[in-house]
Amino acid sequence: MKGTVRLLSFLLCGAFSALAAGPSSTLVPASFNEGAVIVTDRAAVDDLASSLRDAASAAGSSCTKSEYVVWTEPEEGLEETFNGGVKALGYTYRVLDSSDDEDGRAVAFALSGPQQALAGLWLEAEGATVLAWCVLKPVAAKAPAKPTPALQPSAPAASVPKPAPAPAKPAAPAASPAKPAPAPAPAKPAAPAASAKPPTTKPGYVSGLVLDTQGRPLAGARVFISGTTFTQGQKTNFETETKADGTYSLRVPDGRYQAKASYTTTFEGQTFSFFMDPASGNPSTSVDSSEGGNLNFRWKLSGLRAGSGAGANRYDDFYGSSVDFSYCGLPAKAYCAEKYSAVTPGAAPGGSTITATFTPQGKLVDGSTGKPVVYTFKAAPLAPPGGYPYTDPNGGGRTTLGQGWQYHSTNFNDLPLGRYTLTVTATLPDGRQKPLKLGLTADDVEHSSVTVRWVPWDDFNPASYIGGGIKQMKVFVRD
């Protein structure tokens, strides 16, 4: 979805009207509101059409008939009007994915109706609204796959960061003052077991092998295959699952195809879906099915997601989980609770080394044994007496905890999914150590440690290959 946003300078959004005042839709028995323009120049929407096909694939099918609508001066409340309109027509609206940032707002959605199903993209930015949607090809109903239990415990995963250093010898501060030091780079995956071999390629087939975090065959992984046929240039897609030996093989029309894979399992009563890392390192790798080709994958608990690019630092650029580490800085009532608004000298004066340690409780999601993960950074200086803007005549307090932080919070990214105990300690310039207070809610930042666990996105669809499917956890910290 982010690629679509950059390409169009718009973001997907649910904004469209079913009021009978403008041109009639070619997909549903309703009319758009006044000011809507239906785009008929296919060349003008060619790139958007590709993103629409991805949305259809995320909805579990493919487009049979599409429509593109633009509002250059959208009315206020357009999205609410759309939702009411499709509901009045008997459709059930389901969000596949969404985003909202400085470029605009975005939503990919699916509609289920009594006669047909649709998928679409909504873009809203720069004062305009764009709707791209299509009727989906009917597919046979399929019983949902039973969640596969977590793998049996084994040696620690190769992708788990190295053990934490002793508290008395904190790690060096991060090279970039704006962010905490990242977890150590994951080691290269161990070589697959001798029995884990990709299938022999065959003309007319797309095939491959999916491995777990330990390099063993992973059964029950979902594989989504999409591409374009050679004879008619038709966009098409298929879905299959890996067998007990971790392999898949599917007969497809001659054409060029890509694949993506995901694995669903349960952990602490929650159902998570994980994207597999392509062995090629590029999620856009394709094969010629007329010759036959393998597209292989592996499950990773941490590391940069394929396609994220060097220097990526958003929390969803990683296979691991993320914590939003939020400081009750001045004015504390803006970030935590009113009761923390009093200016205090601070437990960690400027130059102190802050060490955040995540200690695993039990096994990780794949059944392996986790290791402590440590992030360190230097504390920002306290405000001088009369300092700007929220201090008293005696000084003290600060807006950010870390040196160079742009905001009151920062991200701790790429933690292998598990349950952790988090502690945060300040090592003062004189060598003394002081614990900082933590909390999971803004009005209860009173604890020396907190338990950190994650939950999946609402209505997450792994077929979309968008984002990581794990909600970011928020932890509050204060002096």
Keywords:
4 helices; 6-stranded antiparallel β-sheet; 479 residues; Immunoglobulin-like
Give the terminus-to-terminus CA distance: 39 Å
Number of helices: 4
Residue runs with pLDDT of under 50 for 5 or more positions? 5-21, 141-194
Query: How confident is the prediction overall: mean pLDDT?
Result: 79
| C-alpha-based Rg, rounded | 25 Å
Q: Helices and strands, in N-to-C order?
A: HEHEHEEEEEEEEEEEEEEEHEEEEEEEE
Strand order of the largest sheet: 1-2-6-5-4-3
SS-based class: mainly beta
Shape: globular
Amount of helix: under 10%
Number of domains: 3
- Strand residue content: 25-35%
Architecture blueprint of SSEs:
Layout lengths: L1 H7 L27 E3 L7 H13 L4 E9 L6 H11 L3 E10 L2 E9 L4 E9 L2 E9 L68 E7 L10 E8 L5 E7 L5 E5 L3 E13 L2 E6 L1 E2 L7 E3 L4 E2 L2 E2 L22 E7 L4 H4 L17 E8 L12 E6 L30 E7 L4 E8 L5 E3 L1 E3 L10 E3 L20 E6 L1
Parallel strand pairs: 7-15, 7-16, 17-25
Antiparallel strand pairs: 1-2, 2-6, 3-4, 4-5, 5-6, 7-10, 8-9, 8-11, 11-12, 11-14, 13-16, 17-20, 18-19, 18-21, 21-22, 21-24, 23-25
Structural overview:
The protein has 3 domains: 2-136, no CATH class; 205-298, Carboxypeptidase-like, regulatory domain (Immunoglobulin-like, Sandwich); 315-478, no CATH class. A hairpin with a 4-residue loop joins strand 4 and strand 5 (117-125). It is mostly beta strands and 479 residues long. The longest helix has 13 residues, at 46-58. The protein has helices at 2-8, 46-58, 78-88, 332-335, and strands spanning 36-38, 63-71, 92-101, 104-112, 117-125, 128-136, 205-211, 222-229, 235-241, 247-251, 255-267, 270-275, 277-278, 286-288, 293-294, 297-298, 321-327, 353-360, 373-378, 409-415, 420-427, 433-435, 437-439, 450-452, 473-478. The radius of gyration is 25 Å and the shape is globular. The model is unreliable at 5-21 and 141-194 (pLDDT under 50). The strands form 5 sheets. The chain has a 6-stranded antiparallel β-sheet, sandwiched between helices.
